[in-house]
Amino acid sequence: MAETIPNGRPDSAIIDGPTNPMVTPILTDLYQFTMAYAYWKAGKQNERAVFDLYFRRNPFGGEYTIFAGLEECIRFIANFRFTEDEIAFIKLSLPQSCEDGFYEYLRALDCSDIEIYSVSEGSVVFPKVPLMRIEGPIAVVQLLETPFVNLINYASLVTTNAARHRFVAGRSKILLEFGLRRAQGPDGGISASKYCYMGGFDATSNVAAGKLFGIPLRGTHSHAFVSSFLSPDEIIDKSLQHHDGSSVCEDFVSLVQTWLNKLKWSHLLGGIFSETNQSELAAFASYALAFPGSFLALVDTYDVMRSGLPNFCAVALALNDLGYKAVGIRLDSGDLAYQSCEARKFFCAIEKEFGLPGFGKTNITASNDLNEETLDALNKQGHEVDAFGIGTHLVTCYAQAALGVVFKLVEINNQPRIKLSEDVSKVSIPCKKRCYRLYGKEGYPLVDIMTGENEPQPKVGERILCRHPFSESKRAYVVPQRVEELLKCFWPGNSDKTREDLPPLKEIRERCIEQLDQMRPDHMRRLNPTPYKVSVSAKLYDFIHFLWLNEAPVGELQ
Length: 558
Hints:
Its EC number is 6.3.4.21. 37% of the residues lie in helices and 17% in strands. By secondary structure, the chain is of the alpha/beta class. The strands form 6 sheets. A 6-stranded antiparallel sheet has the order 16-15-2-6-4-22. The chain is elongated, with a radius of gyration of 29 Å.
């Protein structure tokens, strides 16, 4: 839904600043200020410029990317003003020959004359297609380059990484982001939690992210908690009230021991274990006394099958007697496929022997340095894991360090500009553009097409020629069954356009999931995915190559 702003001015008072207070106008590269001064010195600072923000290659060897970070960019420009301290530091950092008038110019700067058109956050996007189009006075837009690229690059990369993990794990599994301790600093940890949730994860261990963004929190205990106990005798208060409040069990630990003995002599479970580790049992019983309604135990501190699993089950069965239902176990080492299958058999045997409906479906969570490859391997091996806790490989984007977002000038004072290179992938697509997604009969997106700003919009049912931007022979006619315009106005500046609302995180997450569901399966697969087609209109193709020839110097052979 779009919001009309009185007089066309974005009301920055209703938009909070960036999540990270370090995101200020001086979170940028020095050359942005040297260029701004040179523009100002030449009297060019207010010339109207158009920049495209896009990326050149999909990450992780895949054929899609999720766009993220837009909200933080809008928060940044809504509160863009230099403080006196910042101006003083800029003055110290630039040569003394820079005139004082430039610093007066910086004092007055804001983003009221900037316009931003963007793909909606959480959308599936592809190389070369602008994620954002930024219009405004060239010096101001240039000062936005580094922070925008910074805010979009990691956000889109880690959201895509999360979406890829979700795709491999499948819809039915619970995915938990456990990456805070391994993230690249506090901001990396906070950002990862937010964008992994956007990309399809269900919860995080990060308490600060839970508070900031309303992400569900999950977590239990570590190996240290288990090994901190020496024996059940350490538990002082052993009483536990029945779930319905009708009675009190005065010695919960004895009830647990009774159930452990029953399991030990069970004819279905006989021989699996003999004497379990009693300090581990004490830790489990103590944790259950603290959290009887949400008991989940880490069972691999000593031995999963001979100690951790039977100890958990004894505590879970004691809780069941008092009207509580244990959540499950977590496996954090070893052969996760084998252990999860054996644990499931154990749970099912208990359900059968003791007549406990649903016990066989007790939740099994797995962690231990998981990534896309290990999830895929577990699927091929066969496993009984219900939830995965994923950390290091997810939040650090271990498989690829950066997305490679770029910010290129495409028009100045209504004159299209092009950046040339011997590497064709680095040639920019000039001029202010409109971007569309064309859908086929089956509902899948077929192609993204860029057109000149004043070209007519593609129409449903009408054939349109789609051309590869740089390869003459790659072209195809498309008859779209649905046409979606991709770039919407999220910051209208001084124009009279309406501003799109910034949706809450949960809605962006739902959009991401919905968008991924719309994609053709062969674009999504892990191995050898089919490239998605990105094209330009015939008219824009001709103009790109006209401008290319016009700007490229002609060589001379001697």
